[in-house]
Design a protein that fits this description.
CATH superfamily: Aldolase class I
Order of helices and strands: EEEHEHEHEHEHEHEHHEH
CATH architecture: Alpha-Beta Barrel
Structural class: alpha/beta
Helix content: 25-40%
Number of helices: 9
CATH class: Alpha Beta
Shape: globular
Distance between the termini: 26 Å
Bound molecules: phosphoenolpyruvate, manganese (II) ion
Strand order of the largest sheet: 3-4-5-6-7-8-9-10
Oligomer: single chain
Length: about 270
């Protein structure tokens, strides 16, 4: 048995399916079809968030995303609207009927994030924040655990094990690219890790080609590659006006680009190859 024993395939041979309640019916992640999470990097204002949510809600999105607590490299960059952002996410859920996911950076904000949102995200920078992992492990909310930017697959699965071991079995893994010597892209998306983690673990695996590549033009091809490699879903940044975005505009798709990607994904699903 590997060290990540609760996450291991040996522990459970069937794929774990994570159910997210929603007004439009339950969403299941890990069933073999592609779950699409989309929205802007950050919740920038009530008006802009509700506008993008309405623009994309019928384009094949299952879950809305948006950061309220943003981990920014520079302390001078926009760091999110915090609780006000959470309230806007909850309002978007009311209006669209779609569940919402947002990142938590600090255990002190966890209760608020759980109150307003349906899924908690642990970002790449916090993958090995063990006290945060144990804290979300004590909750019963589904958690998206992003791969650390310099984490091996084993370290990622062991980080996941902290959440499982604390009693929360609703963990969704997300490959978002790792740091390599390559400088033309923000990160290097480890597509093989998707197939590997599906082999090693029973948990669902998503891919985030937005943070993975940092370039709008590469998001769709890498998203298609992720699905071909067996990913259970995608996390995609979309902005109504990427040039004006307060964070990650270069990697954000326009709504039209997103609609076309979502259509491609549906077509790929019909191929049923594996
Ligand atoms: C995000 O999804 O908003 C994010 C900051 O991603 P990552 O943790 O993968 O950098
Ligand atoms: Mn982002």
């Amino acid at each position: 048995m590997p060290a990540y024993k609760l996450a291991a395939r040996q522990e459970q041979s069937s794929n774990t399916q994570i159910k997210i309640p929603s007004r439009n019916g339950e969403i299941s992640i890990g069933t073999g079809s592609c779950t699409i999470i989309a929205g802007p990097c950050s919740v920038e204002s009530r008006k802009k968030y509700l506008e993008i949510a309405m623009l994309i809600k019928d384009m094949g999105v299952h879950i809305l995303r948006g950061g309220a607590y943003k981990p920014r490299t520079s302390p001078y960059s926009f760091a999110g609207l915090e609780e006000e952002g959470l309230k806007i996410l909850a309002e978007a859920r009311e209006i669209t009927g779609l569940p919402v996911v947002t990142e938590v950076l600090d255990p002190r904000d966890l209760d608020k994030v759980m109150y307003y949102c349906d899924i908690i995200q642990i970002g790449s920078r916090n993958m090995q924040n063990f006290s945060l992992l144990k804290e979300v492990g004590r909750s019963r909310k589904p958690v998206i655990l992003k791969r650390g930017l310099a984490a091996t697959v084993e370290e990622w699965l062991l980080a996941c094990e902290y959440i499982l071991n604390a009693g929360n079995d609703k963990v969704i893994l997300c490959e978002r690219g790792i740091r390599t010597f390559e400088k033309m892209m923000r990160n290097t998306v480890d597509i093989a890790a998707v197939a590997l983690v599906k082999e090693l673990s029973h948990l669902p695996v998503l891919v985030d080609p937005s943070h993975g590549t940092g370039r709008r033009s590469l998001v769709a091809p890498v998203a298609r590659a992720a699905i071909a490699a067996g990913a259970d879903g995608l996390m995609i940044e979309v902005h109504q006006n990427p040039e004006q975005a307060l964070s990650d505009g270069e990697q954000s798709l326009t709504p039209a680009m997103f609609a076309s990607l979502a259509q491609d994904i549906r077509k790929m699903e019909q191929l049923q190859v594996s």
